[in-house]
Design goal:
There is one protein chain. By secondary structure, this protein is of the alpha+beta class. The chain contains 12 helices and 17 strands. The strands form 5 sheets. The chain has a 6-stranded antiparallel β-sheet, with no helix packed on it. A 5-stranded mixed β-sheet has the order 10-9-11-12-15, with no helix packed on it. It is elongated and about 105 Å long.
Length: 480
């Protein structure tokens, strides 16, 4: 549609206290002004197309009309010509094609900021305040009326308006008199950012408005150092997921320090890697139970006073602060049916005694906290009751064939970082779990300050107090 109705008031970024656009904001987004040569090339291309459309009128009809006008009896001259119908057809075709070309140019410029010449020269037109489409009436019609008025003075007027006035722009943005009247600005999309690429513009705006900072935290050491002070390293707080830049989030007191477990006997591993099961040939045998040897107070005090870098001999390696959640098993095809031998053989062996084991999934729902009903508390304070088989979260969630029993819950998201059907919170064998449904920007579970990404179609169990991140939205999982 050509008519524009603005029925909502929104905040326009990049304006100063007086409501004027700031050139520095557009430059920080990556928008570059079109060069004068590009603008002249676009004008020459459009003028050449208009001249080609007028060729039938100029070559066939114009000489006949001029000759008839110079004759004392022009009507008699035109009536005696045998090719009068061809002359009239050429004149009408030229006028019709020229008017259609002008209308198409106006509509394309107002709605998409591009014309035939601008597309060839690699430039686009935007509104100088909103950096969006210029609009039909002011951005296209008013601007072209100024250009048409400049042709009253042949040659000199168009040269002043098109070529000279952009060079004397006080803001050095290449805006001429016609651009000032239409509130338009021409940008170079070959060297800079294309303002009509919605996704890249959202990323650029969020990058400018989101402060990026680094925090210093300690990394786990692969060997026990003599000095208990571990070297520091920087971790970026802000991260990008699927091309969308996330703002820094505070996960609590332990958010900046990932759990570390190191000992003199076993090197540490990344916190998001589950412990590998020990081979059967290397599995340690259980020692015979022995009664603990009595220790004197002096011996106990000596052990307590020992530095952490030298643990007492014979003690087991310290366990990790927290192990990542284990993947839930696939639900059985028929309720009550025993597991097949192939599934039993595919079950990994239990890990060695010295390695911390991942949290086991209980078989009975009664043994799991929150196996009944639960609540998701969004960061805005809204509460979503999770009952029955579970819920589907997204901007417009739709049930698939296997999600017939899940309740769709729409989530408002102005940045569209949340997919239409993003994540499911449902029960598997009586355990609440979160499952990413092949979303664009991904999902994750944040537990004890550590973030664990959800693989599409691979559910992870939820605990009371976990934070579920999907897109730019967050929800705290609470069991009732």
């Amino acid at each position: 549609m050509i008519w524009e109705i603005d029925d909502a008031t929104r905040t326009i970024e990049g304006l100063d206290a007086h409501g004027r656009p700031m050139p520095g904001y557009a430059a920080s987004l990556g928008l570059l002004p079109a060069r004068p040569g590009q603008r002249v090339l676009a004008t020459l291309c459009e003028a050449a197309i208009a001249l080609i459309l007028l060729l039938p009128l100029l070559i066939v009809a114009l000489p006949v009309l001029v000759g008839a006008a110079l004759d004392p009896e022009p009507q008699q001259v035109l009536a005696t010509r045998s090719d009068l119908i061809i002359v009239l057809i050429c004149a009408a075709a030229s006028w019709f094609l020229s008017i259609a070309f002008i209308i198409v140019q106006l509509v394309l410029h107002g709605r998409r900021g591009v014309t035939v010449g601008k597309a060839i020269a690699g430039i686009r037109s935007v509104n100088v305040r909103t950096l969006e489409r210029p609009g039909f009436w002011r951005g296209a019609v008013v601007r072209y009326l100024v250009l048409a008025a400049s042709m009253i003075v042949p040659l000199i007027g168009p040269v002043l308006v098109i070529a000279v006035s952009p060079l004397i722009d006080p803001e050095r943005r290449g805006r001429g008199w016609a651009d000032l009247a239409g509130a338009t600005w021409f940008v170079d999309v070959r060297r800079g950012l294309n303002p009509y690429d919605g996704k890249r513009m959202r990323i650029a705006r969020k990058t400018v408005t989101t402060p990026l900072r680094d925090v210093v935290t300690r990394l786990p050491s692969l060997a026990t150092p003599a000095d208990p002070v571990v070297g520091a390293a920087a971790f970026p707080v802000a991260r990008s997921t699927g091309g969308v830049l996330g703002a820094p989030r505070t996960q609590g007191a332990g958010a900046t320090a990932p759990p570390a477990a190191s000992s003199a006997a076993a090197p540490s591993r990344p916190p998001d890697t589950p412990p590998a099961p020990a081979p059967a040939s290397l599995a340690p045998t259980s020692p015979a139970p022995t009664s603990p040897a009595p220790t004197s107070p002096a011996t106990t005090n000596a052990v307590d006073a020992a530095p952490p870098s030298s643990p007492p001999a014979g003690d087991a390696a310290p366990a990790a602060a927290w192990a990542p959640p284990a993947l839930l098993p696939e639900p059985p095809a028929t309720t009550g049916q025993a597991a097949s031998p192939a599934a039993a053989s595919a079950t990994p062996a239990p890990p060695a005694a010295a390695s911390p084991a991942p949290p086991a999934v209980p078989a009975s729902p009664a043994a799991v906290p929150g196996a009944g009903t639960a609540t998701l508390v969004l960061e805005t304070g809204e509460r979503i009751a999770v009952a029955g088989d579970g819920v589907l979260l997204g901007r417009a969630p739709a049930r698939a064939r296997g999600d017939a029993e899940l309740l769709p819950v729409p989530i408002a998201d102005t940045t569209k970082s949340v997919s239409k059907t993003h994540v499911a919170v449902h029960r598997i064998d009586g355990v609440w779990a979160a499952e990413d449904l092949h979303s664009t920007n991904g999902s994750a579970i944040v537990r004890d300050g550590t973030q664990h990404e959800l693989l599409p179609g691979r559910p992870l169990p939820l605990r009371d107090g976990d934070e579920l991140r999907f897109g730019d939205r967050r929800a705290r999982f609470q069991t009732d």
